[in-house]
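Quick review question:
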């Protein structure tokens, strides 16, 4: 059975890559899922961010230590009252369509992210009240209140710059042929198969780009990704299974690249979004508490991840700056789980748990299913590809989902998007005005001690309500061909193509 699966997977990748453009200067990257919409205004998937890194430069980026560094903006400064952020822009930058990147382009992009009906960036930029053009290469963000996460926001999708000409001509259809100012330009996309980019000759940092083409292929099965990497059909495979590390380390034709991670997985629950929320799990906090008590995060880590990941119950890793130390990872307590279900009057609650069709996601879902069954839960697992699950979750057509968040350098970006009343990934429609008020206060200060105290108060609220159950933090693990040089790992898991070379 395994041989059949591997053969089928190898065939899929071979077909995806069997094109005249395949050569020593084509970098072939396997992604665990098919990216969602290739438009920074609409995208929400992690693998979408991986592809955006090849297409769309941002105003600023992060380095390996999570410090903000220049990209399309060369420098920035805050006003004394923290109500304005002024940026100097890089001269000589052009978009893939040959039009000029300047302050007017920044204004167009930010206003689109703030107002376009299709935009998912509205809540991230709601504190930006205006974008002012100071001169062609200087732009000022005017804020309605101090907003500490803004630099982090501009180092992600909301800082990606798209050609204003393309915005005007394509509108919400930009994803069909995205036009940015990154190192590579769009060539083609075949859904569930491949995305092809080619080097942009007029890129402002062209000296850092040595590879002619990049092909991203979708390969959900980790064993198939590894088999294709070993055979030479791929040059980079993301999210190598921790159980396969020895195979990569022991193969002289491969390299293992590792990095600490901002990413976490959480079990997100539908509390108040349509008919699918009308379950004991969605409506009764005791049932959610019982589910958490039935789960042993350390067992998940050992069984599925060979002990390589970090068991966690919060959106920041244990021991990090904003981890709420008064709320450590709770141990499994099966007796407590059964008692809580009895008190809730539902000794055998049932719900459907979404899982992406990736190998480890399914294994995590199965371990949770088995553990929870010992407490009395009846969990059905529904497996599908990520974009199908995203569409269902957005509509509220789900009950629970074990889903990844790739992480952000500012803590607000790891909490508010899921748990604020207007969070753009708050599919379950959890809403607590007291939590929102604390998160708003934390955004208005840059004093670390003050933010720590506020996030600890916030944790006391959301950890008790359990609109989601945080499970573990990842370690990023990539496998590459030994012929690839210059791969630099980052804690956000994004594959940056600058500096890479591929030997024949």
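Suggested answer, residue by residue:
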């Amino acid at each position: 059975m395994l041989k059949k699966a591997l053969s089928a997977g190898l065939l899929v990748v071979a077909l995806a890559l069997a094109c005249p453009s395949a050569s020593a200067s084509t970098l072939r990257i396997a992604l665990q899922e098919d990216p969602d919409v290739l438009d920074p205004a609409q995208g929400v998937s992690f693998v979408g961010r991986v592809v955006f890194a090849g297409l769309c430069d941002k105003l600023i980026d992060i380095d390996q230590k999570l410090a903000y560094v220049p990209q399309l903006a060369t420098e920035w400064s805050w006003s004394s009252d923290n109500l304005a952020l002024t940026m100097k822009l890089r001269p000589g930058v052009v978009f893939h369509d040959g039009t000029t990147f300047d302050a007017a382009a920044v204004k167009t992009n930010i206003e689109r992210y703030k107002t376009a009906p299709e935009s998912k960036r509205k809540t991230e930029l709601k504190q930006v009240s205006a974008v002012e053009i100071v001169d062609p290469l200087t732009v000022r963000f005017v804020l309605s209140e101090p907003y500490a996460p803004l630099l982090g926001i501009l180092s992600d999708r909301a800082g990606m710059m798209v050609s204003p000409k393309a915005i005007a001509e394509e509108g919400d259809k930009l994803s069909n042929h995205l036009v940015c100012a990154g190192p590579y330009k769009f060539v083609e996309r075949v859904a569930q198969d491949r995305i092809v980019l080619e080097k942009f000759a007029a890129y402002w940092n062209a000296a850092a780009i040595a590879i002619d083409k990049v092909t991203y292929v979708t390969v959900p099965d980790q064993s198939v990704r590894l088999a294709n990497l070993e055979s030479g059909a791929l040059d980079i495979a993301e999210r190598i299974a921790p159980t396969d590390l020895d195979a990569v380390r022991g193969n002289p034709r491969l390299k293992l690249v590792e990095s600490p991670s901002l990413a976490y997985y959480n079990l997100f629950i539908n509390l108040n979004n349509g008919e699918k929320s009308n379950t004991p799990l969605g409506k009764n906090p005791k049932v959610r508490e019982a589910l958490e008590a039935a789960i042993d995060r350390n067992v998940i880590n050992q069984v599925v991840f060979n002990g390589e990941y970090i068991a966690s119950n919060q959106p920041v890793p244990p021991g990090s700056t904003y981890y709420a130390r008064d709320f450590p990872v709770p141990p499994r307590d099966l007796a407590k789980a059964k008692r809580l279900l009895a008190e809730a009057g539902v000794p055998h609650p049932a719900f459907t748990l979404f899982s992406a069709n990736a190998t480890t996601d399914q294994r995590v879902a199965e371990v949770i299913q088995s553990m929870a069954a010992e407490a009395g839960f009846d969990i059905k697992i529904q497996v599908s590809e990520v974009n199908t699950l995203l569409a269902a979750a957005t509509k509220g057509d789900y009950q629970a989902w074990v889903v990844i968040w790739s992480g952000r350098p500012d803590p607000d970006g790891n909490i508010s998007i899921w748990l604020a009343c207007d969070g753009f990934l708050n599919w379950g429609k959890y809403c607590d005005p007291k939590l929102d008020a604390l998160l708003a206060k934390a955004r208005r200060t840059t004093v670390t001690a003050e933010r720590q105290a506020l996030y600890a108060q916030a944790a006391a609220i959301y950890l008790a309500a359990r609109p989601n159950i945080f499970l573990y933090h990842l370690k990023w693990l990539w496998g590459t061909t030994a012929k690839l040089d210059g791969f630099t790992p980052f804690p956000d898991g994004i594959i940056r193509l600058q500096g890479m070379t591929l030997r024949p």
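Why it works: The chain has three domains: 2-13+24-56+182-253+482-502, 60-166, 262-474. The radius of gyration is 23 Å.
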